Amino acid sequence: MLTLPQDNGGTVVRMEAQADVLVADHLRKKDAPDGSVSFRYIDACIANGALVDKDEHRIFQPHAVRPAGSSRPARTTRAPFTELDKRILVTWVRRCESVGESINGNVIYQTLAEHVRNPCTTTSCTQAPC
Q: By residue range, what is the domain housing residue 13?
């Protein structure tokens, strides 16, 4: 696996901090570092003869809240909003505003975050408070 990138013009480095693309095993998500891509990314780039979109091979881990005082470092980068994220956010804010909820502060955004982390059935979603 290490020779494939080198045989196709890539460079393999020893330290993660020096890597442009961090490759990990998608079958071991819990061990994959944040921002890493599956090794299938290398195969797809070679098959395509050019770089492919990294986001299609990104390894996502379930987001867990970091406990206060934890020695685990906070994330250093922020995931960019997708168009779907923007539509969900705008729809949520408009809905809360239409029922008279304040859109100032963090409460409606924290509620949305909980709602997204714990998806529910269609019936309970329509009855969920802002």
A: 3-57
Tokens representing residue 86 in the block: 């923007």
Q: In whole angstroms, what is the distance from residue 130 CA to residue 13 CA?
A: 48
- The answer to whether 56 touches 37, Cβ cutoff 8 Å, is no
Flag whether 73 is in a domain. Answer: no
Dihedral sign, Cα of residue 46, residue 51, residue 55, residue 56: negative
Are 51 and 92 found together in one domain? Answer: no
What pTM was computed for the model?
Answer: 0.42
Residue 66 lies in a domain: no
- Each residue's pLDDT, cut to its tens digit, for the chain (130 residues) gives 667 766 777 777 788 777 777 777 776 777 777 778 887 888 888 888 888 888 888 887 555 565 666 666 666 677 788 888 888 889 989 998 899 888 888 888 888 888 876 555 444 444 455 5
